[in-house]
Every structure is written in C-alpha cells, then in structure tokens.
Design brief:
By secondary structure, the chain is mainly α. It is built from eight helices and no strands. It has two domains: 53 residues, no CATH class; 101 residues, Orthogonal Bundle (Cytochrome Bc1 Complex, Chain D, domain 2). Helices cover 49% and strands 0% of the residues.
Length: 185
C-alpha cells in the first residue's frame, strides 16, 4: 500500500519534470521579444524578487533628496539609465521599445516614485536577472547609486533645473511663476 503511494508520487514528479523538459526541448518556450509570455512567467519572477527583497535590510537613503543631489543624480541617469528608462517628454528609444520585459519609463506615470528607495537602490546595485536590468555594483560608486536612486524616487517632483540637466530643455515643466531657467550649452 505504502509502496504503491510512494511509486505514485515518484511517477507524478517524474511526469511533471518530463513535461517541463519537453516544453523547452521541443522549442515551445518563448524566445523572441514579441512571443507570448511563458505560463506564469511574470507571476513567478515577481514572487521570487519580492520574497527575496523582503528579507533584505531596508536602508534609509544615504543622501538627502535636495536640488544639488538631484542634479548630480541626473548626470548619472543620463549616462547610464536614460537609454532604457527614458527622459521627461522625450520619445522612447528603439532599445527601450525592443526589450522584453520592457523597461518602465521612470519619468512617465508613477515610475518608481511609489517604491521604497532602498528597493530601487538594491535593483540598481544588483540588477534583475533575465530582464535586461544591469547591476551597477563596481561600476558606479555607492554615492552615485544613491544619487540616481533619490532622483528616480522623486521623478515626479523634479524642478526645471533638474529637467534641463536631463534633457537640455526646461519646457512644459516650469510651474506658473517659476523663474526662467537658462538652457545649458
Ligand atoms: C539596458 C537597459 C537598462 C538600463 C541601461 C537600465 N535599466 Fe533599469 N530596468 C531595465 C528593465 C528591462 C527593467 C524591468 C525589470 C523587470 O521587469 O522586472 C528595469 C527595472 C528597473 C527598476 C525597477 C522598476 C520597477 O518598477 O520595479 C529600477 C528602479 C531601475 N531599473 C533603475 C535603473 C537605473 C537607475 C538605471 C541606471 C543607473 C537603470 N535602471 C539602467 C532595463 C535597464
């Protein structure tokens, strides 16, 4: 009796493993960017990421989100992030359009302004496997990672000066009555 149940369990597990193997081995898994997602792909990837992140220390931002730091963060963002994550009022690049999953446009909609800063800091530092999001550890300093993190956390609150640093143009963001900002040459 017990033997029968055990045999059933072993055969069941082997059956599932064989199906997963066959799915990949017979070329059914999605490969092209426009192919439909794998069953539960997004659900499992998000679940894995969030249960992992929840266990990490929730650090406070190590630099204040003042104008000077947001300007410095903008410099880092222009060189290392804008090609994928976009700039305010600028059309998406071909690179951003051609990726799967698509990089969220961090100056459109909520971006990551509703995420905790430590979470974005961790993602910038370590990257996210199998998504195209690079890890910048060893290539940006700790301070640079925090500067760009506070920028994307505050992407909905940037001043015209920060927008000029990002895009070279202050248009559309100047609040009524705000002082005019010269475009940097
Ligand atoms: C080569 C393209 C690419 C570059 C360059 C890049 N990223 Fe990403 N990034 C991605 C993709 C793709 C994702 C989406 C990952 C996913 O779906 O989980 C992502 C995700 C993120 C997220 C998490 C977004 C969310 O909604 O959870 C943050 C924050 C982020 N990137 C910040 C940055 C910053 C800051 C830089 C520059 C230092 C940067 N990225 C550079 C492609 C890129």
């Amino acid at each position: 009796m017990i033997k029968g149940i055990l045999l059933g369990i072993v055969l069941g597990i082997a059956g599932v493993a064989a199906c997963v193997y066959a799915y990949f081995a017979t070329g059914r898994a999605p490969i092209a960017v426009e192919a439909a997602e794998m069953p539960f792909e997004r659900k499992f990837a998000r679940m894995g990421l969030h249960s992992y992140l929840d266990k990490l220390p929730h650090l406070e931002p190590q630099v204040p989100a003042d104008e000077k730091n947001l300007l410095e963060g903008a410099k880092v963002y222009k060189s290392h992030c804008a090609v994928c994550h976009g700039l305010p009022d600028v059309a998406k690049t071909a690179i951003a359009e051609g990726m799967a999953p698509k990089p969220p446009q961090l100056f459109k909609g909520v971006g990551v302004t509703d995420d905790e800063a430590w979470e974005s800091y961790w993602k910038v530092k370590n990257g996210i496997r199998m998504t195209g999001m690079p890890g910048f550890k060893g290539h940006l300093t700790e301070t640079e990672i925090w500067l760009v993190t506070v920028l994307v956390k505050n992407a909905d609150k940037i001043t015209p000066a920060v927008k000029v640093e990002l895009t070279g143009s202050p248009t559309t963001l100047a609040a009524p009555g705000a002082p005019a900002v010269a475009v940097k040459k």
